[in-house]
Amino acid sequence: MDFKEGKEKFIESWGKMASDWGINRTMAQVHALLLIAPDALTADEVMAELNISRGNANMTLRALMDWGLVHKQLKSGERKEYFFAEKDMWVVVRQIIIHRKKRELEPMLKVLEELSTVKGVDLESETFSRVISDIKLFSNKANQTLDVLTRSDSNWFTNVFLRFLK
Fold first, then answer.
1. Number of domains observed in the structure of the chain
2. How far apart are the first and last CA of the chain?
């Protein structure tokens, strides 16, 4: 496989993986392109490489910056903005966890807290309360685990993960 073919396959695969996880496919493809780019790229270069519109490129680059996965760079003497991806995979994973936790898990925890106040004396309401309590317990444990993970450094996580695999 030559470089061009490998590059296209990586960008497409990264996009598919992300869309399977509920993340915008174009966002993931732009991220993949910037991950493997040796130098920062302009929005025009991203548009040309991925054949996407200016609006889509700009919106996607801003979203990636909001996630902390892409950073903007200005070059002296040039008016264009350049964009580069965070290449440290530990930082990338941590940023994704933080963002998804804030967007998905934390709102669910609020709903579960509210639902845990539901009262009733019949079998249906008792079953409901028990299931909500179990989900809330699991969700809180997941939240605590993710907090520990995002506060830790890559060496700690790697050591724990390797011990887990043994």
1. 2
2. 35
